[in-house]
Amino acid sequence: MPSTDERLTALETSEKAIYKELDEIKQEQKDQRQLIVVVEQIATKTNLIADKVNKIDERITEVEKEPARQFKKYKETIITSIITLIIGAIVGGLIALILK
After folding, report:
1. Percent of the chain scored above 90 by pLDDT?
2. Alpha carbon 4 to chain centroid distance?
3. Residue 48 has pLDDT above 90, yes or no
4. What is the distance between the terminal CA atoms of the chain, rounded to a whole angstrom?
5. What is the rounded CA–CA span in Å between residue 20 and residue 15?
6. Could you give the maximum distance between any two Cα atoms of the chain, in Å?
7. Are the beta carbons of 22 and 14 closer than 8 angstroms?
8. CA distance 31 to 29
9. Whether the Cβ atoms of residue 10 and residue 2 lie closer than 8 Å to each other
10. Which residue of 2, 20, 23, 26 could cross-link 6, Cys pair, CB 3.0 to 4.6 Å?
11. Could you give the angle at the alpha carbon of 40 between the alpha carbons of 37 and 41, nearest 5°?
C-alpha cells in the first residue's frame, strides 16, 4: 500500500495535469469564440456581396434588354413607313384614276 506522501504526490501530479487540461480547454473555448466572431463577420460580408451582385445582375439584365427595345422600335417605324407608302400609293392611284 502506498504511503501518504506517495499518495499526496500522486494527487498533486494529477491536480497539475487537471489544471493544465483545464487551461487548454479554456484556450480552446477562447479560440472557438474568436472563430465564431470571424465566421459571423464573413457571413455578413458575404450577404452584402450577394446583395451587390444581385443589384449588378438586375442592371445588366436591363442593359441587355435595351437593344431589343430599340430593334422593336425601329421595326415598328419601318413597318409603319411601308404601310404608309402602300396606302399613299393606293390613294395616289385612285386619285389619278378619278382625275382622268
Report:
1. 74
2. 69
3. yes
4. 143
5. 9
6. 144
7. no
8. 5
9. yes
10. 2
11. 90
Locate 68 and state its grid cell: 431589343
Contacts of 10 (CB under 8 A, 6+ apart): 2
What is the rounded CA–CA span in Å between residue 57 and residue 70? Answer: 21
DSSP output for the chain: ---HHHHHHHHHHHHHHHHHHHHHHHHHHHHHHHHHHHHHHHHHHHHHHHHHHHHHHHHHHHHHHHHHHHHHHHHHHHHHHHHHHHHHHHHHHHHHHHH-
Q: In the block, which residue shows the cell 422593336? A: 72
Burial of 12 (0-12, 13-18, 19+ CB in 10 A): exposed
